[in-house]
Design brief:
The protein is an all-alpha fold. It has one domain. It contains 4 helices and no strands. The protein starts with a helix and ends with a helix.
Length: 144
């Protein structure tokens, strides 16, 4: 069991920076803070757009948003049901959004506590710091 705890510790430290990033950006995306609904009313901050793009597309945002190709000639427009009223949709989604936000907060807190526990051991502090740094640097290099 000692070896299992050690492997758990090392794997957790290496992935901790990305766990924090994905938990935080996932919570922001739950409320669609990265989307521009009406540019006159709300324009998302660049850092939120960047986080969402890394979270969803595994790459920084592009300069221009991709656009859909036009439908082929003679294609019929798609038939859609009318969406439910916005107030009904918001109320039905709110409990899950609150749960996902709590989940994100719990994951962030648990990860920070794990890092704190790992760094409190003077025998493994150096390797813990190296793993945390590696878990931060490797994903940044992969984004380039």
């Amino acid at each position: 069991m000692r070896k299992v705890r050690q492997v758990h510790n090392y794997v957790g430290l290496f992935f901790a920076p990305m766990i924090l990033l994905f938990a935080f950006s996932g919570a922001l995306q739950t409320y669609r803070l990265q989307e521009t609904r009406d540019p006159a009313a709300y324009t998302p901050p660049g850092w939120i757009v960047w986080l969402a793009s890394v979270h969803k597309d595994q790459q920084p945002p592009r300069a221009e948003p991709p656009h859909r190709p036009p439908p082929p000639p003679g294609a019929r427009p798609e038939q859609h049901r009318a969406p439910p009223p916005a107030s009904h949709r918001l109320l039905s989604q709110l409990p899950l959004k609150i749960f996902v936000t709590g989940l994100s907060i719990g994951l962030i807190l648990s990860t920070l506590l794990g890092i704190t526990i790992a760094l409190n051991n003077p025998l493994t502090r150096r390797i813990s710091l190296i793993l945390l740094a590696s878990g931060t640097i490797v994903p940044l290099l992969l984004l380039l």
